[in-house]
Task: inverse folding
């Protein structure tokens, strides 16, 4: 279980990083963001922006009103990783449009979370979980 404010903080930092990528066209910065996403996809507690939140921001705040399951934000990190890798491939191979579009999609999702608390990757995770559990009901081995 995690403090839901942590992923939102991480999304705000991610939004700034991805906006910088779009402004500079830096595949290297996007590749570094991909590493950040990868760490969060493997173990959400190791996501660098989350570590920064827990060490520097959370101690200054009141305890969270509730905690949330870590699985949906961890899945969202995996989705972010996919877009960052695709974007990095675009920038490094000279297909700038691919890099910019993939980065733009990742930025859109990060901004939704940062500004409105709407985690698109989390919603996709929950939808997939509902669809999978519905499709396997009534199936016997």
Result:
């Amino acid at each position: 279980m995690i403090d839901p404010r942590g992923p939102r903080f991480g999304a705000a930092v991610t939004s700034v990083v991805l906006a910088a990528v779009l402004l500079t066209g830096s595949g290297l910065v996007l590749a570094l963001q991909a590493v950040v996403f990868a760490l969060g996809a493997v173990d959400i507690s190791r996501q660098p922006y989350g570590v920064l939140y827990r060490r520097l921001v959370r101690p200054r705040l009141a305890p969270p009103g509730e905690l949330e399951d870590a699985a949906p934000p961890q899945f969202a990190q995996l989705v972010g990783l996919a877009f960052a890798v695709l974007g990095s491939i675009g920038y490094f191979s000279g297909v700038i449009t691919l890099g910019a579009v993939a980065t733009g999609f990742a930025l859109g999702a990060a901004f939704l979370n940062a500004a409105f608390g709407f985690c698109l990757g989390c919603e996709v995770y929950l939808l997939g979980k509902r669809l999978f559990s519905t499709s396997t009901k009534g199936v016997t081995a």
